[in-house]
Amino acid sequence: MVTPEQHDRSAAVLLGLAAGDALASGDDFAWSERTAAAVDLALLMADGRDPREADLWEELGADAEPGASGPGAADPEAVRLAAGRRLLRTAPVALALLDDPVALAEAARLVSSGRGTAVTGSDRTDADADTETDTGAGDAAVLFGLSLRVAILEGRLDPRAGLATLPAEARAAWEAHLAAAGQGRTVDVQRVGAVGGVLQGAWAILGEAGAADASLVEQVISRAAHSGADPASVAAAGALLAGRWGLEAVPVAWRRRLHGRPGLFGIDLVRLGMLSTRSGVPHDPDDPARMDVLR
Fold first, then answer.
1. Which domain holds residue 243?
2. Between vectors from CA 115 to CA 58 and to CA 152, what angle results, nearest 5°?
3. Burial degree of 284 (CB within 10 A; 0-12, 13-18, 19+)
4. Which residues sit opposite 260 in a β-bridge?
5. Bigger pLDDT: 84 or 186?
6. How many domains is the chain partitioned into structurally?
7. Of 53, 54, 189, 219, which has the highest C-beta tally within 10 A?
8. Per the domain annotation, does 293 fall within a domain?
9. The domain spanning residue 13 has which CATH number?
10. Cβ–Cβ < 8 Å for 50, 100
C-alpha cells in the first residue's frame, strides 16, 4: 500500500512525462506519439492488466507503433522516435509494478524488446527493425523503470538504482555513461544504442542534482526543451522529476493546457497515473482524491 506522499508522486509521473514531451515538441502543449504510446499502455494498466500478459500485446498489435507507415530507409529521426516510444512505455509499467522490482525489470525488458510494439508486414519500417535489434534497450528500460520506482517510493533521484540488476559488462559500461550524464554530457549513441541514448540524454538534462526542490522543475524542463534536446529525453526527465517531487512540480498552467491522443488532458493523466498505481486493486471511479489539482 502506497502512502499519500507516494501516491502524489506516482500520480504526477505521466503528467511530467507529457509536459516534457509537449514542451520539447513545440506544439502548443500537445503531447506527441511518444507520450501517446505510454498512455495507450497506461490505459490497460489502469484496468489492472499485467504488462507481461501476451494477450495484452496482441490487443495493442500494430497500433503500438503509431506513425510508422510504409517501408523506407530508417532516418535518424525515425529511429529516435521509435526509441523514445520504447523507453517511455516503461513509465506505466513502473507504476503498475511498484511493489515488485523483479517483475518491473522483467516487464521493462519486454516493453523495450519490440514484442507487441513491432510493426509487421507492409507497415514495417527500417526504424522499427533498428530499435528491435538494439541490444542495450532492455538494460536502459530496466534502469529507467527502477529509477522511477525509487523516485516514487523513496523520494530521491538515483540513476544507478537498477545497476545491480544488469549483467557485469553492461553494468560497467552504464556506470561510465551515467557518470558522463552526471556532468551533463552525452555519449555517442552507437555506444548505448538508440533507447539507451534517450535515457542517457535524460540524465544529462538532470545532471547530478536534478532539481534542488519542486519549484525548480519548471526551470530544468523548460531549459532542456528550448535547448534542442531530444523530446523523448526531456519527457523521461520530466517523468523522473515529477516522480521525485509530485504534483506540485508540474506548473498549474502546464497541467491545464496539456492535451493529446487519445483525446485526453492533463487531469486525465493524473487520474490515469493514480489508477495505474492501483493496478489490480478495487477502486471507486469517482474517488475525489487529488482530483482538485487543476482547479
1. 4-277
2. 100
3. exposed
4. 264
5. 84
6. 1
7. 189
8. no
9. 1.10.4080.10
10. no
Closest to 270 measured CA to CA, from 41, 16, 11: 11
Question: Residue 134's pLDDT is what?
Answer: 76
Query: Which tens digit of pLDDT belongs to each residue from 242-288?
Result: 999 999 999 999 999 999 999 999 999 999 999 999 654 444 445 54
Read off the pLDDT of residues 73-84 as tens digits, 9 standing for 90 and up: 467 888 889 999
User: ω before 288 within 30° of 0 (cis)?
Assistant: no
Q: Could you give phi then psi for residue 49, rounded to 5 degrees?
A: -80, 155
Amino acid sitting at position 224: A
Give the residue from 98, 99, 131 showing the smallest Cα distance to 115: 131
Mean residue pLDDT of the chain comes to: 84
In a domain, 21, yes or no: yes
pTM (two decimals): 0.86
Phi-psi region of 98 (alpha: psi -120 to 50; beta: other; left: phi over 0): alpha
pLDDT tier at 186, thresholds 50, 70, 90? confident
| Domain-embedded: residue 174 | yes
Give a three-class secondary structure readout of the chain.
Answer: CCCHHHHHHHHHHHHHHHHHHHHHHCCCCECCHHHHHHHHHHHHHCCCCCCCCHHHHHHHHHHHCCCCCCCCCCCHHHHHHHHHHHHHCHHHHHHHCCCCHHHHHHHHHHHHHCCCCCCCHHHCCHHHHHHHCCCCHHHHHHHHHHHHHHHHHHCCCCCCCCHHHCCHHHHHHHHHHHHHHHCCCCCCHHHHHHHHHHHHHHHHHHCCCCCCCHHHHHHHHHHHHCCCCCHHHHHHHHHHHHHHHCHHHCCHHHHHHCEECCCEEHHHHHHHHHHHHCCCCCCCCCCCCCCCCCC
Whole-angstrom Cα distance, residue 35 to residue 232? 9
Residue 70: other Cβ atoms inside 10 A? 8
Q: Tell me whether residue 290 is in a domain.
A: no
> Left, alpha or beta for 186 (phi > 0: left; psi -120 to 50: alpha)?
beta
